[in-house]
Amino acid sequence: xxxxxxxxxVYNRADHFKKTVEALSKxxxxxxxxxxxxxxxxxxxxxxxxxxxxxxxxxELQKQxxxxxxxxxxxxxxxxxAKSVIDGVTExxxxxxxxxxxxxxSVTDKSFLSFMNLCLDYYKDENRVGSVAGYTPVLDFSxxxxxxxxxxYRSCSSAWATWQDRWQSIDWExxxxxxxxxxxxxxxxxxxNGSDRFIRLYRQTKGNGSSWSVRFGAHLVKNDYLTVYPKxxxxxxxxxxxxxxxxxxxxxxxxxxxxNNAISSPKMVDxxxxxxxxxxxxxxxSYGFVSDVKKFLYTCFIVIKERLKG
Length: 310
Fold this sequence. Notes:
The protein is an alpha/beta fold. Helices cover 42% and strands 15% of the residues. The chain is built from 12 helices and 10 strands.
């Protein structure tokens, strides 16, 4: 099994980066893995010193021989996370055919790389699987669920992996968004594991969002791809401390996991959908009945308005 390259995106949080890379380096596969770090440029003068602090930490990291090789890309301008991820993943995945992606606020278990590489190898020819997730929220699994992984139509954005053939045809400009307006079933599938997803996708088309992940997730759903998740998370997000652009302490509580539960030697299974788990995910990523009803009505309004336009 060839190890996938690791791609990491960093900006202005040196402390988070240090914790992330320290944990990642403890994986057994780290010493044999290529690490590519994309460092975004400062958005304004206030962030220049913080960005430089991260880049100084990267230089120190390069001296420690914790990975097989470390390649750094320093952007002279601020591209933003979405463009950084799209451009960076595309460049590396076109060279290697697969990638493992880690953001700079994701502390990983020592079995993280083993799990991600195992899934990339096992499911590479499975045309129902479009990506691999390293993070799983705390879910109340049935005592009868004895598998180490499960499958979902919701993709993961904090620590994940995919293959070139799943990535290369993504409609980043959302030129085919009308396919969702025409298909209630497609919207239903997109919202199967969280009522927030279609509205976020729609806002992206109106310039009210800059998310690579919502576009990637829509691409997977449209092509009937699933994401394979570990039963227990290999990743703990440490960025929801209000230090990032889209993070709050409430998010930190919702995303908390205990990495001690991570399975060191997980067993892969053939693709199947467990309906009970889909309901657990929807409950986790939704905000109650009233919120779901409001989002449903707004979704109906969007669809009717866009259909009348077309």
